[in-house]
Sequence to fold (347 residues):
Amino acid sequence: MANCNLLFTEYNSIIRLSDEKRKELLEARNNLRIRLKQGYQIVSRELGIQHEIQHQSQGSFVMDTIISPLRDDYDIDDGLYFIGNLDRSSRPTPSEFHKWVKFALDRGHDDIEKIIDKSTCIRVQYKSGFHVDIPIYYADNIDCPDLADVNRGWILSHPIEFIEWFEQKIQSGFKKGFITESRLFDEFIQWTSDIRKNDHQLRRIVRYLKAWGDLRREEMPCGLIMTILAANNYYPHQRDDISLKETLINIQAALRNDFRCERPTTPKGENLFEGYKNEDAFMKYLGYFIDNAKKALEEPNQKLACKHWQASLGDRFPCNSAKDEIIGNAATVSLGIGGSIRKPWCY
Fold:
């Protein structure tokens, strides 16, 4: 009954990464690209190898589902592509590529706290609290790159496909060429501006789920899983509070039937929950979230309803802006109490 849609609008502005932090990430990314180019020239001369290198931004920064975490450890993913025609058995190992990239980066820097060699990327941690992840790829065809995974070897992986898959869900007009073709750069900048202005509801739902997961980061699934679960179970509605509650119910039903989250793009069908050890905890917290969402929608007083949302979303959910009065109408009662009951006011 209580309409908390405007509170979710404010909450979205709180958890959405600010323009200042976006600029900071882009500056760090661009500086690293310069450093990689210079460092790789040294490496290639010493080893007698020549490969063209390219860069492709990827992940939540491009899709604008990135959030500002509680611990301020926000990040950007910037793929580094070695372009060559060596097959997997002829090219250097993933570990060697990781070693080259780490060497190229680890020279004369004051703003970097540490450089970490992870299985699927090189992470550059900055003293100011953010990091840049650099996954490394090898490809003779940019549409079919191999990811250099230190633990698993070369793995066919194409992160741009995932962006395309997500953007097709909301028909945003994204083209792979925005990232792979420099001639479309101006069009990409305009697209980026448009999606941020429009801020589709699904992007907001993903941010809400990520911010919820950020409260219990060690136990909760990663942002990629949250994004897939939201996109596959999204329930559109003119109000974010109802959309979120119904999406949560859809996610719960899907996972109760089969606790899986399949990657929708290369390597397609991979179960991202494989090896995840917190199924019981996640399902418990998901149940709590749904219960709190139902209580919030049943509650006629917005101030009291807000407290139920805050119980799952944390202190950043702006109950200080809630009004101590009844705001809403009886049309939302069924959606507050019951499950996924479809009504004509949803679009």
